[in-house]
Amino acid sequence: MGEYKSLCYVVLVSLIVSCITGEDPYRFYNWNGILINGQFPGPQIECVTNDNLIINVFNSLDEPFLISWNGVQQRRNSWQDGVYGTNCPIPPGQNFTYVLQVKDQIGSYFYFPSLAFHKAAGGFGGFKIASRSVIPVPFPPPAGDFTILAGDWYKQNHTDLKAILDGGHDLPFPDGLLINGRGSNGYTFTVDQGKTYRFRISNVGLTTSINFRIEGHKMLLVEVEGTHSLQNTYDSLDIHLGQSYSVLVTADQPAKDYYIVVSTRFTTQVLSTTSILHYGNSGSGVSGSPPGGPTTQIDWSLEQARSIRRNLSASGPRPNPQGSYHYGLINTTHTIRLANAAPIINGKQRYSVNSVSFIQPDTPLKLADYFKISGVFSLGSIPDSPTGGGGYLQTAVMNADFRGYAEIIFENAEEFVQSWHIDGHNFFIVGMDGGQWTPASRLSYNLRDTISRCTVQVYPNSWTAVYMPLDNVGMWNVRSENWVRQYLGQQFYLRVYSPANSWRDEYPIPRNALLCGRAVGHRTRSL
């Protein structure tokens, strides 16, 4: 896989501070930029529902830097989302302290660097939110808990990859796959025979879907991005870009070592890598070839996706649109149709949503909105349905009303699987199918027990429909999780707006907010 490029050094200190009775606890993290050689992936964040996190990030790079939190909803607090639409970058040699609460969330997520194609250099890590002790979990406590961060990898430095994209070209096929920062058989998970373990698996790659499987072992799916799932058993799981799953695996096979396999999906050239499931009493290592993946047909993956449903009997945090848990009984207030495309604009490869290819503004959108700085963006600068026209460049912001309930249809007329993520929200995946979406497609929606998550795939020449409660005021990034497409314009921002100037709806601007661009010279708020 080539040598990793060491960018800087990271120190992580975790401390739980005693608090006043009844107050949610605080956890403090002290970070020094991103880390590759010393600890790659980065240190895992471990917290409990409603914990307050104080994360101090020191940027030791020679370029600006931001960390974002994939799947952490930042309730009432898009100020901490860590993307350029909400935050000024941390300058080289300086620090920024994120203050966020994992309000009413559980589950398996990850953090990642969001600027300048840094994600291609690593800098990502696991983010685990455990349930509070008073909330029952719908399975016995496992004997151990493992995090697996897997995805494709390029040997080239992130700056070289960025230069290729800036020159108007797509990236070549990845050089390989990594599991927790290691190549084939480079990482070992040790288990005791007869015990059950939880594996939290995320696809942190740049461009490809993956399939995950463990030789000779079944996987019991229990959680999908914060939602307790129907406990189906799978031999392998397709995990698309940006997605996270939790499975239970019982070490019930003869004592030896077994392959853990990750391979690319829906690619002409199939890349694979392995790690090791090691029984503590094993007398032999892995042998033979790793097990092959499932059929390459889309239908297999589509049927698996449809089988992933909500556990209706489980306790824990649940989406609560408009005061009701019955998502299928609520009337939608707005339909948004989003079509991806790959236009050539000004002689360069770009990617777009509804013909708009996003360009970054000179000032974070959230700051421009808060300080009422004109000329940075215009509301409605991206249409809410496909136009059918050619692509054009624009800083795209779509407006939405707080407490609305949106139907969003992702339409993919291309030959490649798409993966879409929306910051600040989970959504209900009510339908996915091949062909063109029409209003008649609503007849096939699952309005009873669909899964709720924050990242969803759209298969080639297909559509995916979601219902999303607009219950979180802020400026939220809607993006492709294919990092090439995201970087070259397949993203926009959704401004969920409330006219009330109230802490009930949104927290005020942080006192330590960094100011840049046209926001320089403005004041945050008094100490």
From TrEMBL:
Keywords: Glycoprotein, Signal. GO terms for molecular function: copper ion binding; oxidoreductase activity. It comes from the Eukaryota. The keyword 4Fe-4S does not apply. Residues 1-22 form the signal peptide. Residues 33-132, 145-281, 362-499 form the Plastocyanin-like domain. The keyword Signal applies. InterPro entries: Cu-oxidase-like_N, Cu-oxidase_2nd, Cu-oxidase_C, Cu-oxidase_fam, Cupredoxin, CuRO_2_AO-like, CuRO_3_AO-like. Belongs to the multicopper oxidase family. This is L-ascorbate oxidase homolog. It comes from Ziziphus jujuba var. spinosa. The lineage of its organism: Eukaryota, Viridiplantae, Streptophyta, Embryophyta, Tracheophyta.
